[in-house]
Amino acid sequence: MQAKVLFVDDEQHVLDGIKRSLYKEPLKLYFARCASQALDILAKEDIDLIISDERMPHMSGSELLKTVHEKYPQTIRIMLTGHADVEAAKRAINEGKIYSFLSKPIGKDELLATIYQALTQKEVENKKTTLSQQAVHLANWEWDPKNNKLRWSDNFPQLFGFTPPTHIGHYRQLFATVNALDRPFLVDAIKKCLQNRQGIEVEHRIETKKESKWVSQLIDVVPNPQGQVIKVMGIARDISEQKNQSQKHLKVKNYCHHIQEFLLFSFHPSIYLLHYRAKL
C-alpha cells in the first residue's frame, strides 16, 4: 500500500513543482493551498506524513502542525519554509512535535531522503506498537541485516537465560539457548518472514541449566519504500504456564477416554468390538 503524503503551501507553483518532481515515486500525493483544505483532507484520508509551509494566510504552518499533532498524532509532521523564522521553528518543534524542519529551496534528493526516512521511522514504530499489543510479559530484539547489528531489551537475558556476547552479528546469535530440535524451525520461520515480508508466530522451547520453558515469538520485518528489509524484530513471551495447562487438559481428556472404553468393554463387550472395528 502506498504511503499518503500531504503537501501544504499557499503558492501553487511550489505545489506544482513538487508534483512534477515526485510523480514517479511510490507515494500517494495530496496537495492543499491552505490549512483548512489540509484539515479537510486529513479528516477524510489516513495521511501518513504532512509537509507544510510556515507562512500562510489565516493559519500558519506551525499552528496547523500543532492542530495535526492534537487531532492526528499518528501523522508525521514536517515544516518547510523559505523564511529564517526562528520563533516559528521553535513553535513547530515544541507544540507541533515535528519530525524535521526543512528550508526552501530544497532539492528533490534531500526532500525524498527526508520523506522516506520519516516513513520508515513511522513503520518501525507501527510494527513495535502492533507487536507490543499482542504480547504482555515480553522481551524484544531487533536485527539490522544491512549493518549486521543486534539490539535486545533489558529483560531478554532473563527470558532466554543468557546475554548475547556482542551487539554486532547475525540474529542466530540470539538463540543459543533455543532447544536444538526447535532451532531449525525457528530459523526457517524467520527466513519465511524475510521472503514473504509478513509477520509470523512461532513457538519453541528454551533450555538452560536452570530450567526449561516454552516461548512464543511474534516476528515481523520492516521494509523501506523500495521493498528492502531494513529491520527484523521479534517479541517473545513465556507461555510455559499455558503449555502446562494444555498438557494437563490433554492428560485428563485421555484418562476419561480410557475410562470410557474400559466401562464399555466391561459392560457391553459386543458394542465395544463394533466401536473398535469402526475406528480401524
Give the tags.
45% helix, elongated, 5-stranded parallel beta sheet, alpha/beta, 280 residues
What is the H-and-E element order?
EHEHEHEHEHEEHHEEEHH
Distinct helical segment count: 9
Distance between the termini: 52 Å
Average pLDDT number: 82
Quaternary organization: single chain
Task: Give the structural class.
Answer: alpha/beta
3D shape:
elongated
| Proportion of beta-strand residues | 15-25%
How does the major sheet shape up? 5 strands, parallel
Rounded radius of gyration (Å): 28 Å
The beta-strand count equals 10
Strand sequence of the main sheet, in spatial order?
2-1-3-4-5
**Low-confidence parts:** none
Helix proportion? 40-55%
Characterization of this structure:
The protein is of the alpha/beta class and 280 residues long. It has helices at 12-22, 35-44, 61-71, 86-94, 108-133, 156-160, 183-196, 240-267, 269-279, and strands at residues 3-8, 27-32, 49-53, 76-81, 100-103, 138-144, 149-152, 200-207, 212-223, 229-238. Helix 4 (86-94) links the parallel strand 4 and strand 5 (100-103). Helix 3 (61-71) packs parallel to helix 4. The two termini are 52 Å apart. The mean pLDDT is 82.
Structure in a nutshell:
Helices cover 45% and strands 24% of the residues. It has 9 helices and 10 strands.
